[in-house]
Amino acid sequence: MNKSLRVVGVLALVLFAFAAPVSAAPFTYPAPVHETFPAPEAPDVTAASWILYDESTDTVIAELNADEERAMASVTKIMTGLLTVENTFPAETVTISERAANTGEKEIELVAGETVSMDALFKALMIHSANDAATAIAEHISGSVEEFVALMNQRAAELGLANTSFANPHGLDASDHYTSARDLLHMAQVAMENPRFAEVVKAKKLVFPPAPDGTPRTGSSTNLMLESYEGSLGVKTGFTAQALLTYVAAAEREGRRLYAVLLGSDGDRAHFADATELFDYGFKELGFFGDASTGSPYVALKGRQIPDPLVSLGNMETYLHLAGQGLMLDSPSPLRALPEPAPPPIVEVTRNPDPAPKTVMETMRFWLDLALGVE
Asked: Does the annotation count 74 as an active-site position?
């Protein structure tokens, strides 16, 4: 008896499962980490500290010592440039001081006493990496370099840059001037959200107004990957004896934007080689793939290369991104409601059957009449 009841119970459950409508309860699929499907190893680059970030999925793909405090050199100018676009207009005019004209190292050759537009100074800052332009901008915005440095550190605190300290607006080595790869990544993302900033950092050449004596002044971008790497968007390079080569780079391909931040790359143009290795790793080896299975109330957001659709007993969309953690699945897309189908027509039928036969003779007569076609 008990065995019979168990069999009946199992059959009832199976029948209930098959009888349930497909669209009644779409299922969700958890995001497992498959240890048997590891990501390829990150490339071995020369930088002492670096981070590779995929903005499309908000994922740190790989990193090394990303929170280590290190000298930053001219990538400092990302913060100087951010404050420039946040606090000035391109048409403003700036009078160049003796201190600005004598900043030293890489310059656009500003002359004390001349008047230059903020637009020209900003472009010299971000394209040519001009230290004299950085000092001139700082003095114009805050009244002095020291006050501008305080503004830089205030903005860093607002952005949550816990491992960053600024001592000047240009990046020349100083004991209390440092940052981390992760802080630089966030700083660059905020700056690149400003269209004025993003437009200038992808420029390759600069024609600066002539000096007061008529001497032509031109500049070239220090970011050589703008010429050599497909999809490159900027952002800023740097070098000092203490910091070595530093670089914050952004590149975009097929809707994916990656950021590579490198501090302490060592060797001839090693920062460009390092960034190329990291970008290739992110774009090529860790590709971004889409697939979907669709049920009746669901429309896939991404098309499939093969024409045959996928059909399953539920609704799920999957995005596969081979990041450092292994296989990752993004959250399912929201289901799209479809209109209810039109109800079938209702046909009314009226029947008045004769009373059922009551005797054997009446039954035999009924079947005989039916066989002979008698109404």
From this structure: yes
- Side chain identity at residue 1, one-letter code: M
Q: Active site residue: 49, 77, 142, 180, which one?
A: 77
- pLDDT tens-digit map of 196-251: 999 999 999 999 999 999 999 999 999 999 999 999 999 999 999 999 999 999 99
Comparing CA positions, the residue from 37, 104, 7, 128 lying closest to residue 322 is 37
Q: Identity (one letter) of the amino acid at 290? A: G
Please give the domain boundaries of the chain with CATH numbers for all domains.
Answer: 49-285 (3.40.710.10), 287-336 (no CATH)
pLDDT tens string 17-64: 444 444 444 444 455 554 544 667 888 899 999 999 999 889 999 999
Which of the residues 49, 97, 129, 180 is marked catalytic?
Answer: 129
The number of CA neighbours under 13 Å toward the Cβ of 72 is: 31
Query: Is residue 129 flagged as an active site residue?
Result: yes
Query: What residues contact 226, with CB distance under 8 A and at least 6 apart?
Result: 202, 204, 232, 234
Q: Where are the alpha helices (DSSP H) in the chain?
A: 2-19, 77-87, 98-101, 118-126, 131-142, 145-158, 181-192, 195-201, 225-228, 270-280, 360-372
The answer to whether the beta carbons of residues 106 and 130 sit under 8 Å apart is yes
What's phi and psi for 34, nearest 5 deg?
A: -90, 105
CA–CA gap between residue 45 and residue 42 (Å, rounded): 9
106 included as an active-site residue: no
Q: What is the DSSP letter of 235?
A: E
Q: What is the dihedral angle through the alpha carbons of 51, 223, 155, 102, rounded to the nearest 10 degrees?
A: 140
The DSSP call for residue 160 is T
Angle at 190 between CA 58 and CA 52, to 5 degrees: 40
CB atoms within 10 A of CB 84: 29
**Contacts (Cβ under 8 Å, ≥6 apart) of 204:** 127, 220, 221, 226, 227
Question: Which position among 74, 142, 180, 265 bears the catalytic label?
Answer: 74
